[in-house]
TrEMBL record, chain A:
Residues 22-222 form the ABC transmembrane type-1 domain. Belongs to the binding-protein-dependent transport system permease family. HisMQ subfamily. It is a multi-pass membrane protein. It holds the Pfam family BPD_transp_1. The keyword Transmembrane applies. This is ABC transporter permease subunit.
Automatic annotation (TrEMBL), chain B:
The chain crosses the membrane at residues 20-41, 53-74, 162-184, 196-222. Signal peptide: none annotated. It is a multi-pass membrane protein. This is ABC transporter permease. Keywords: Cell inner membrane, Cell membrane, Membrane, Transmembrane, Transmembrane helix, Transport. Residues 17-215 form the ABC transmembrane type-1 domain. It comes from Mesorhizobium shangrilense. NCBIfam families: HEQRo_perm_3TM. It is found in: Cell inner membrane; Cell membrane. InterPro entries: AA_ABC_transptr_permease_3TM, ArtM/GltK/GlnP/TcyL/YhdX-like, MetI-like, MetI-like_sf. Pfam families: BPD_transp_1. It comes from the Bacteria. Belongs to the binding-protein-dependent transport system permease family. HisMQ subfamily.
Length: 238, 241
């Protein structure tokens, strides 16, 4: 069958490149997601416990990053990053233009965006913690760090799992936008294949299918995590 | 940072605002209609309808919007002769209509989940009470179920509207000159990404702020029963009289 030759692993097939591209998609999404968790944690902390100045900064960050199209953020990091790199290199050589690797620009951009959403997830999860537990922890003499490690972090993580799952799915789908910087992830690879075979429909369909497999698998993993994390919680009869 | 350049970019980018708003509002309205149909299909209790709606939502929420746009705009171009014979080529050759189609189909999938949640949140007692009064079918929907469900859905649907505004930026990748499209052109011609980002970001923030306020106003208008009663002196006087 013609279609199978096109996307298969034979000499004429694009199968191998497409699978490699899927790996790049997963890697860039994971890098962005990890960065997002770090930023989200810090921003949530700033919002909950910071002084007025830090709180205003954190609020501005989440408002701007959630209100501006991700594509613009990717352009900012891709072109802005290259500009910055060129300026740094110009300090000790007579310069020329230095481009930022698309993977780094893309991962940073989607990380910064997902951080804004993660912050809200963490903040919501912290809110669902009962103040009594924190007071009890303090009462038995726990230090702030110990209190965070033993009481706050485990419960916040548990409450945040569904929200984190949503952000991961969003980050994963956003990673398709990084294709505009030329990073060869699923969509870019599909574009290349579509261009050289003149069969865009087949290849974009394959790209969609690859994304669908990844989102479906991640949903299964997050469902399992959620079930596991809540196994000790008392549940009301549904 | 060049303030003058930011101002000039801002003015230049304003030319893209009508297109951004058009894409948002047209796609959003079509999306709401499809979302209502999908939500009703899922709540219908008819297994085949439920399955179709479920699959639709799974497919559109599981793949990136940009892939959907490419599939419709570039992918369907492959079937030009067939589309021409069906008289649909006029439609699918325009990036404008392809973007609107992709955006509407996409937002409908998310919207139907919001509506389904809202419909499920209608307390069964209200429905029972209405049935006891002899309401059924459309009247029950119009008077009891929809008013409760729509109020419930409004905040989440407001978020979806904001996501839509941001999503229209993807139309710039298939050559549309919306705010993001003009911004991309400005960046590559001036090579000042930071200034252009500030100007374009400001435009999107203003649009989103205004839309959020509008949804808030609608919410306020729809929920008079949740508002604090107006200044009590008036009612007291009436009672006394």
């Amino acid at each position: 069958m013609e279609f199978l030759d096109l996307v298969g692993f034979g000499p004429e097939g694009w199968g191998k490149s497409l699978l490699l591209a899927a790996l790049v998609t997963i890697m860039v999404a994971m890098a962005g997601f990890a960065l997002g968790i770090v930023i989200g944690g810090l921003v949530a902390w700033a919002k909950l416990a910071g002084g007025t100045a830090t709180r205003i900064f954190a609020d501005t960050y989440t408002t701007v990053l959630r209100g501006v199209p991700d594509l613009l953020v990717i352009y900012l990091f891709y072109f802005g990053g290259s500009l910055l790199l060129s300026a740094i290199f110009r300090l000790w050589s007579d310069g020329g233009f230095v481009g930022i690797p698309p993977f780094i620009a893309g991962a940073t951009a989607i990380g910064v965006v997902s951080g804004a959403y993660q912050a809200e997830v963490f903040r919501g999860a912290f809110r669902s913690l009962s103040t009594g537990e924190i007071e009890a922890g303090k009462a038995v003499g726990m230090h702030r760090l110990l209190l965070f490690r033993r009481i706050i972090a485990p419960q916040v993580a548990r409450h945040a799992i569904p929200g984190i799952g949503n952000v991961w799915q969003m980050t994963l789908k956003e990673s398709a936008l990084v294709s505009v910087t030329g990073l060869v992830e699923i969509l870019r690879q599909a574009q290349i294949a579509a261009g050289s075979t003149r069969k865009p429909f087949e290849f974009y369909l394959i790209a969609a299918a690859l994304f669908l497999v990844i989102t479906w698998l991640s949903q299964r993993i997050f469902d399992w995590l959620e079930k596991r994390a809540s196994r000790s919680m008392v549940r009301e009869a549904a | 940072m060049d303030l003058l350049f930011i101002r000039d970019s801002f003015v230049g980018l304003l030319a893209g605002v009508p297109l951004t708003l058009q894409l948002t509002l047209i796609a959003f309205s079509i999306g709401v209609v499809i979302a209502i149909i999908l939500a009703l299909m899922r709540m219908s209790g008819i297994r085949s309808l439920d399955w179709v709606a479920r699959t639709y939502v799974f497919l559109f929420r599981g793949t990136p919007l940009l892939v959907q746009i490419f599939l419709i705009y570039y992918g369907l171009g492959q079937f030009r002769p067939t589309l021409q014979s069906l008289g649909l080529w006029q439609f699918f050759r325009e990036p404008y209509w392809c973007a609107i189609l992709a955006l509407s189909l996409n937002t409908a999938a998310y919207g139907s989940e919001i509506l389904r949640g809202a419909l499920r949140s209608v307390p069964p007692r209200e429905v029972e009470a209405a049935r006891a009064c002899g309401m059924s079918g459309l009247l029950l929907y119009r008077r009891i179920i929809l008013p409760i469900a729509l109020r419930q859905a409004l905040p989440a649907y407001g978020n979806e509207l904001i996501l839509m505004v941001k999503a229209t930026s993807l139309a710039s990748i298939i050559t549309m000159m919306d705010v993001t499209g003009i911004a991309a052109r400005l960046i590559s011609s001036s090579y000042r990404p930071v200034e252009v980002f500030i100007a374009a970001g400001a435009i999107y923030l203003i649009i989103n702020f205004l839309l959020t306020r509008l949804v808030g106003l609608l919410d306020w208008w729809l929920t008079p029963h949740l508002r604090a009663p107006p200044a009590s002196s008036n009612t007291m006087e009436k009672v006394n009289v």
